[in-house]
Amino acid sequence: MSELGERLSKLRAAKGWTMRAAAELAGISNPYLSQIESGKRTSPHAAVLRRLAKAYDVPLPELLALAGHFDDPNLLEAHGYNVTTAFDFVMADPRFRASTLIQEELTIDQKEYIVEVFERVTGAKLLGLR
What we know:
This protein has helices spanning 3-15, 19-26, 30-38, 46-56, 60-66, 73-92, 94-97, 108-122. Helix content is 67%, strand content 0%.
């Protein structure tokens, strides 16, 4: 079992989900999730990892790292840059800025969450890992 597969298996068990339920929540097939958990698929596409991260409520960079997508340290930096760029775009929108009172520096995960809310509300696609 890969590190990614082991982590997803433990998260799923902790939530009391069947594999079928977890796959449905993530929008992937049951056999594909089984392959990831068993280690037969060790490096799923980033779009699949994004779905899993949302379903399991874990940070996307954690799953990307476990899947080996961040073997190059520049990729993690690029993810942070993309989120920060998207966040800056969101904060420039007067409709959204007026309802967002930010008092302190936000983490990349917090910025990503705000961007995702903006995407849901507006239908815009700002983050490239979809």
